[in-house]
Amino acid sequence: MRYVPRALEPVIREAHRRFPAVVLTGPRRAGKTRLLGHLFPKARYFLMEEPDLVARFRADPRGFLDAIEPPVVLDEIQNVPEVFAHIRARIDRHPSRAGQWLLTGSQEAPLMQGVTESMAGRAAILQLLPLSAHESPRVDLLRGGYPEVLARPASARLWFSSYLQTYLERDVRAIVNVRDLSTFRRFLALLASRHGQILNKSDLAGPLGVSVPTIGHWLDVLEATAQILLVPPYFENFGKRLIKSPRLYIADTGLACHLLGIESQRELERSPFLGPLFEGLIASEIAKAQINAGRRRELYHFRDQQGLEVDFVVPGSAGVLLLVECKAGRTVTPGMAAPLRRLAEAMARVRSHRPSASLTVVHQPAKDAPASTALAPGVRAAPWRQFIDELNRR
Description:
- This protein folds into two domains: 9-127, Rossmann fold, CATH 3.40.50.300; 147-393, Winged helix-like DNA-binding domain superfamily/Winged helix DNA-binding domain (Arc Repressor Mutant, subunit A), CATH 1.10.10.10.
- It is α/β, with parallel strands linked by helices.
- The strands form three sheets. It has a six-stranded mixed β-sheet with strand order 8-9-10-11-13-12, sandwiched between helices.
- It contains 16 helices and 13 strands.
- It has helices spanning 9-18, 32-39, 51-59, 61-66, 83-93, 108-118, 147-151, 156-175, 181-193, 201-208, 212-224, 253-259, 265-270, 274-292, 338-350, 384-393; strands spanning 21-25, 44-47, 72-75, 101-105, 123-127, 228-231, 247-250, 300-303, 309-315, 321-327, 357-363, 373-376, 379-383.
């Protein structure tokens, strides 16, 4: 499988020059190992999932690490969280030596606890998500962004089925005690049917016969392992009541389509989930653009109880707010600009510093249509790939 350059590469190289350790997290099969192998081909590599290797480390952790000549890649270190204390001791003995330890992990919740407790100030913490549309033109609604799916799209159904089984059997059970995996599988399918909706934990708990706290715990696991994307509301004092719950998306649209039983482009175009799936694609691409630039994720939705709703509010540079409305159709009309203009006008009335706003209706491209057009005063329409490319250049 041909290596696809990743947008995070410059950030990793910079972190490698400045920190003794780099911790790269993210979901399984996003390409973490391949990326580090490409950037640091001379680093020694150890997969901390191999039973013999884990047994050797736990029998004599100091001897194991003493025998390693950095730089070294320790892959899937969530399986040996005690390694952080030993690496910290070595870093503290030689704090000026940068780029010695390259660590990866797929289960972000327990992994981050170990980093916080042992590696504060000693490690750069970065996240790698599946491929973005900016990184590969193969990324789309139906297939999502996992590298192996894009390399062999004909095997996507089998790949996603295997991925879910691996995720359920290994990652989920390693983090939380799920007694009934069949219920958790139904929970994932139910989440996909709520893709793009305001999160309602009671609505999820009822059909499954589990408690609301259990749903909350499962959602925490899915979010920590980058399987779902929860987009919080954008709060401002607009003098009106706002919806305060996050909006829920399956992070990878290929996985979402699989959970929804959508297997072809024709099925996708006819699906009632086309709109939410397209919206989720844009949410995921915005998050990837921010994370790949080494920034924290800043992505919000807006909805009030008077009916004003805008899909995404994204803080940009120099105080500019990006207001984004997503339309899965290929035809755009001036009426689609109305929510964006109403929200921008409301913001201008109540915010003392009144930052400028960029208003965009993002849509699927039409054949023989111009790339970007003025839709209404102050509002433009842009095909989604153009919008994402622009976002990555900011």
